[in-house]
What does this fold into?
Amino acid sequence: MDTKLTLKLDKDILQKAKLFARENKVSLSALVENYFDSIANSSLKKDYSISPTVRELSGSIRIKGDVDVEKLRDQYLLEKYLHE
It folds into this structure.
């Protein structure tokens, strides 16, 4: 059974969604319904935040010895953004 739903959306986002729907020959209602269905199903799996690519790469890097990963990350970010 279909049920009516009223949403408040940013005007620009709504225009982009309408364009996407038009280009893909699908209704805006179908897009929203499919999106809700996909997040409902993925939340049941509890792994929706990890993409298949990341899941595949997980564990592929081995760190030898006693390494402070947090310190290395901080050092990398300092070098990247502050050029120190």
Observations:
- Residues 70 and 76 are 10 Å apart (CA to CA).
- The chain has a mean pLDDT of 80.
- The chain has four helices and no strands.
